[in-house]
Design a protein that fits this description.
Length: about 230
């Protein structure tokens, strides 16, 4: 995928542009569409390329080298938009704040999950890209205690479930993706487990080997399963 936003973000990273300036350059095309009364299609059309470019750069950036990208995303979230009275916009029927609520970023991450390796999509991530995406989200989740908009722990749970809760042997790809959640967000995973954070319906259910546990999200027993598997 190629877009103005992707080119801008790659250029900012290559030139080591300071995060605030990089964030402004990245979001400028979208903000042109954020005016009072703009149709949702225009707003979504402005937001999506921003998030997709971030996720694609994250996938192609080795996880040890993602600090600058994370700093840019934090700068995006901290921006205040007050153009033509449109600091709040309607997306999918909800009033959300641009950029602090990161509107549609979660939906874009969910779309990325449909590109997990071996899912059969036309643009599956490679094993290394999948690890990098997971590391990036783990890095963001690690700062979610102070900035809740960056809580992507649900995706971490899904990755850990795929790696360590199945009935068969876990694939190296799944295990590598799971490991980076503990590398970058272990403290948050532990806190959420101690708090018993849950999710609706079957979102947080146990994997095949633990389907009868009645799990609905994070809990200390589940955390122990993951920790033992990682040893």
């Amino acid at each position: 995928m190629s877009s103005q936003e992707l080119h801008t973000l790659n250029t900012s990273i290559a030139s080591k542009t300071d995060p605030s300036s990089a964030a402004r350059a990245l979001t400028a095309p979208a903000e042109d569409k954020f005016t009072t009364g703009s149709p949702e299609s225009d707003i979504e059309g402005g937001l999506r390329p921003v998030w997709e470019s971030i996720l694609n750069v994250a996938a192609d950036t080795e996880h040890q080298s993602q600090e600058h990208l994370v700093a840019i995303v934090r700068a995006v979230q901290q921006q205040n938009l007050s153009k033509d009275g449109a600091s709040e916009v309607t997306v999918w029927g909800e009033q959300v704040r641009v950029w602090s609520d990161l509107p549609l970023f979660g939906a874009s991450v969910r779309d990325a999950w449909n590109r997990a390796p071996s899912t059969g999509s036309i643009n599956d991530f490679s094993a290394s890209q999948w690890r990098n995406i997971n590391a990036f989200l783990a890095r963001l989740t690690s700062i979610s205690p102070s900035t809740p908009a960056f809580d992507f722990s649900m995706f971490g749970l899904w990755t850990l479930r795929s790696a360590f809760e199945g009935t068969g042997e876990a694939s190296p790809t799944d295990v590598d993706a799971a490991k980076v959640w503990f590398e970058y967000a272990e403290d948050v995973l532990t806190e959420l487990s101690n708090e018993g954070k849950s999710f609706p319906a079957n979102v947080g259910a146990g994997g095949g080997s633990y389907a009868d546990k009645g799990w609905t999200g994070f809990n200390p027993d589940r955390l122990k399963v993951w920790q033992v598997a990682l040893q």
